[in-house]
Fold this protein.
Amino acid sequence: MNHARRYWVGGIAIVASVVVFLVPFAFIILMSMKDRKQASLRNFDLPVNWQLWDNLVAVVQTRDYMLVTAFINSTILTVASVTLLVIFGAMVGFVLQRRPSRWSGIANFFVLAGLIIPPAVVPTIWVLQGINLFKTMHGMILIEVAYGLSFSVLLFRAFIASVPRELDEAAIIDGAGPLRLFFSVILPLLRPVVITVIVVQSVAIFNDFTNPLYYLPGKENVTVQLTLYNFQSQFSTQFNLLFMNILLITIPPLLVYIFFNRQIVAGMTAGAVKG
Amino acid sequence: MSVAIEASAAPRPAPDNLRRVKSAYPTWFFLPAAIIYGVLFLFPTIASLFFSLTRWTLFEAQFIGLDNFAQFFREPFLVKGLVNTLIYGFVTSGLKVVLGTLLALLLTSDIIGRGYLRAVVFFPTLVSTIGVGITFTVMMHPTNGIINEAISLFGIKGPGWLTDPRFALLSVALVDVWKGVGLATLIYIAGIVSIPRDYFEASKIDGASAWQNFWEITLPLLKPATITVVTLSLIGGLRSFDLIWAMTRGGPGFTSDVIASVIYKQYQAGFYGLSTAGNVVLFVMVAIIIVPISVFLNRREVEE
Amino acid sequence: MTFLTSRRTLIATVAALSLLAGTGYAQAQVTLSYLIDDNPTNLATAEALKAAFEAENPDIKIDIETRPGGGEGDNIVKTRLATGEMTDVFRYNAGSLFQALNAPQTMMDLTDEPFQANVIDSFKPVVTATDGRVYGVPEEASMGGGILYNKKIYAELGLSVPKSWADFMANNEKVKAAGKVPVIQTFGDTWTSQLFVLADYYNVQAAVPTFAADYTAGKAKYATTPAAMAGFQYGEDVFKAGYLNEDFAAAVFDDGLRMVATGEGAHYPMLTFAIGGISQNYPENLQDVGFFAIPGPDASSNGLTVWMPAAVYISKTTQHPEEAKKFVSFIASTKGCDARTSANGATGPYLIKGCELPADVPAAVADLLPYFQTEGGTAPALEFLSPIKGPALEQITVEVGSGIRPAAEAAALYDEDVKKQAMQLGLPGWN
């Protein structure tokens, strides 16, 4: 490609990307810094009074620091579910890939079923109630694990295929049992795909709206997506605060993105293209 | 696919080693995952088959046969919801395939600002759906929204993106594509990068044009990526709820309702049996569409 | 090491916190959770009630929890009651929405509580379940459903309050000719679209006195009762005549209040509780807003459709029944009314004995009161006469009011929706 073209194609793409992708984010940031009156106009002007800090304090203080509770809850939910997803998903993917048996057909079927079938919401509430887990964080964590397992198993199974069997055999000859083989030999080798699973699932769970809406009602259990949804009607005349809230809950994914950018791209595409 | 082949091609362990090797991969490793999946996903799904045949208050379920399904298919807006679900699923995944391919070609070619462009296209994938929904709802406001204000600078009156029954569903679908095209692009980029350079070298010697290269080499070899993108975005699109709910709640009226939002509204109204029946309908519909498509796509791949 | 330091910090923090909270723990404090919807007016009321109640009962703390309004909120209330996860005390609609809650299994029976003596008898039927027991007390003032109008526009154009639908449309024509918006609609909040249908019930009842009973029994239908169809027709008429604000499809409740208060538009079909919102957000325009009932076909029979206020209930699963009753009893007293008036001003007559309205009520409330003082000047809305209200009405009225669906078809569709609800409730005569 010649030099001139390199510049003008890139230039056009950059301009287009600014209009299509950056304007919405700039809009969020501008709105979150305006005062109430100016924000109600919902236009693209620069703020007259810069109220970033005031808006931040106002949103955080709303309804007895509900947003703080929400961030704590979302963090617990995300960390716990992702941990379980990594361990249990890797265990299944490992055995599934290494030892084809009559179970693996069934397991593969359930993995696909888990990807395709929309969860049956009301019966799930009914089951959760029956085992006293409805409206609890434990229940919510297990729900996220149940719904996320299929995708994790797929990623792990695909990756484990590239781990040479000789390593297992060496460990077995050294007298390692299945637990030691898995936790001290295999799991460390899965680092790239573990990071992928962590990133993909934590973003999905942190951003999950539908499931907490159904399974985790109650003020003390609120998650960040639910606060946004609740504030939508409460802040119907205070767009500055609404957008400040959006801005705040966009920061964690942004951090994940900045730190794990390369792994996301490598891992996600490897898993997706192979699987 | 490749997984199965590798596994069977692996050297068989000697018979006396067999038991030890076998026990190194114990079946109970499935157990923790199986319990969680079984109790919280599989069992409710099976139970839903029963509850969909009842009038249900969570306290008591009264068996009413297929009445719920009859009712569900009598709902005048359900037919609309079915059609909308198909439109939404196919429009979003079609656009993701086309735009994803084009963006991937652009972002693998030699242009300035490539790293920045990849980052900015992918980032919306990570952002909260509800946040995106609210932001675009405000920007698409018919009289106050910045989109229509920008359009009016050219002397054109913008449409009611979310309030005109003709556009509401498509507007939400466009936002869905905006948010999801990054993942499709990423998958295509990986596909393009993995095409061996030699192919292009060889075709250069044959005197092929860039256009021929694209049609003869790039596109056929991107098939695995396309299968992934189509399957993922169809499953997501047919089940889609968050974004539609955040932006239009199925409105105006029932004009942008999809099956998932109809189910949610029945649930909201306390018609638990009816809502569960809707769930079964959605499940059957997704299966009917996804299974043949993935079988078809995968078989053609094997034949080649 | 890090573990030690962090643990030490933790202990120090806990100690500091418990010192701060120390005074509170000294007494055996009970916290009651109280669920309301997140409408700012209702939140203001709840906070006023909380402050007044806590001042009187320092050992009881009220913890306000909010939920979305509309269908979403109905769902939350239903699910939480059905699963035994309800707050101690909660606020919810009376009438047909209450009937859908299965009160005998989920709420505390308040029939024999002494504070019921303060409640005006006409309210009790709308919080009485199928078992004949009373489950709630009124939390706010009664409301009228009708049309809020801008008095300045009326004065400018020399209009008078319409007594018939034809008069109303004639007024609209003049407002339009003067370049203002005749009718404000705010379909961004779908619930606001139902007023032409629901608030027309006085006129329905005037034409067909047995409608409520026949409708409950499955004999009378909207689509086949011309008087009941009229409400749907009104929605279609104002749309077809081009009387609506340009952004009617996206505007929300608060936009509607602003437009009618500041004179951007002349008429806003609404419930009178909205006056509280105007006095909070647009106090300088409060006296510019008047109110009249939805005019029917006949100028000689003009009256108001009345909404019973929302009630407070106690959930059966509460851990603190005595404290909860204390709070409910406080709400059903003159002190409760006073707290409410101090938060939002007067919005209509109270249903608690001894509660007086202040002398200087807003103009729209002054317009409302005469209907109550006239013999036969009011009729309850249908949802207080029949347990059945179809859940999809708000979507259907949005479609009619946006020209998506003709009125006749919409009425028939609503009849289907009603049928579904009746069957879920297991009412006789609907199979």
